[in-house]
Amino acid sequence: MGIYILRRLALIIPTLIGIMLLNFVIVQAAPGGPIEQMIAEMEGHGGSALARASGGDTGAEVSSASGDRRGSRGIPDEMLKEIEVMYGFDKPAYERFFKMLKDYATFNFGDSFFRDKSVTELILDKMPVSISLGLWSTLIIYFISIPLGIRKAVSDGSRFDVWSSSAIVIGYAIPGFLFAILLIVLFAGGSYFDWFPLRGLTSSGFDQLNWYQKAGDYLWHLVLPVTANVIGGFATLTLLTKNSFLDEIGKHYVVTARAKGLDANQVLYGHVFRNAMLIVIASLPGVLVSLFFTGSLLIEVIFSLDGLGLLGFEAALNRDYPVIFGTLFIFTLMGLALKLISDITYVLVDPRIDFESREGA
């Protein structure tokens, strides 16, 4: 196992470089950029890349082939050159890329182009929101899906199994953002009830509350976004649990345990549970990556939650390159690390798994 871990650790570096290079090329080829953003702000057209995409006049023409920029409203060439130097675009693309890799090797992600903070500070500021959504969503999904999957396996083919499967498939088919809008319409003052807050994770007077009132206010704000975030997350884990238990229930050791006179609960939780839960437990790192970093963007936007998803979305719109590449580097590194942890978890919960022999085969 040690050799396998070393190989995986060695592969992290070229994988990171490859992902960063691919995204660097894509971003450089995309029209617009931070310089055009600055020119638009100087000319009073606003700095939104979304406005540029909708056809607004930015005051600058961009040639994606040559990278030439020309001010259309009398901005002197000298000022354009100063802006290029300020953003580092006076250097060729390959030189900027290698400098970025050198800085990232020491976890120096630089400062945001359009926010008066470093990339590290921005990520740390937004992290609590994404952790709140991801952690609570993961806990709820596991606490519901595992018992439900076990019940479905025990009662395979029954009416409960059929109608619960139908409900799970319907929930999986509903996009999370669409369900979020439905929750707002029904329960956040949209058209019917005004039971839950529409935005943020805390109320305006949060600092004046005592500890249990703060806890209640925090959970009150989380109800709708977490519900919308997990609506489609039950299907995969529930069916995975069910199929894993069904596979174990049909094995010879279960027949032997029943022949010894053990009751159903002793067989299920004393013998089947440990073996059937191996794949479910080992899938936890992958679920965390999905819920923490990739699954909450639209939920954050809809519920006005200032988290990592919204940070990355705004950075992409505004061409805030340090934030784009800094967050990409951190999330990719964490994803690769969690994938390795997932493989190690498989071995810890089932020593029969040997990745080294598989690689050598």
From TrEMBL:
Which portions of this protein are annotated as coiled-coil regions? none
Q: What is this protein called?
A: Inner membrane ABC transporter permease protein YejB
Region described as Disordered: spans on this chain? 49-74
Question: Which species expresses this protein natively?
Answer: Marinobacter antarcticus
Q: Which PANTHER family match?
A: INNER MEMBRANE ABC TRANSPORTER, INNER MEMBRANE ABC TRANSPORTER PERMEASE PROTEIN YEJB
UniProt function note:
Probably part of a binding-protein-dependent transport system. Probably responsible for the translocation of the substrate across the membrane.
Q: Which GO terms describe its cellular component?
A: plasma membrane
Q: Which GO terms describe its biological process?
A: microcin transport; transmembrane transport
Per UniProt, the keywords (alphabetical) are: Cell inner membrane, Cell membrane, Membrane, Transmembrane, Transmembrane helix, Transport
Q: Identify the SUPFAM superfamilies for this entry.
A: MetI-like
Lipid bilayer topology = Multi-pass membrane protein
Whether Calcium counts among this entry's keywords is no
Please indicate which superkingdom the organism of origin belongs to: Bacteria
Gene3D superfamilies assigned to the protein according to its UniProt record, in alphabetical order: MetI-like
Return the similarity comment: Belongs to the binding-protein-dependent transport system permease family.
Per its UniProt record, what InterPro entries does this chain match?
Answer: MetI-like, MetI-like_sf
Q: Where are the transmembrane segments?
A: 9-30, 129-150, 162-188, 218-241, 276-303, 323-349
Domain (ABC transmembrane type-1) spans 127-342
Localization, per the record, is: Cell inner membrane; Cell membrane
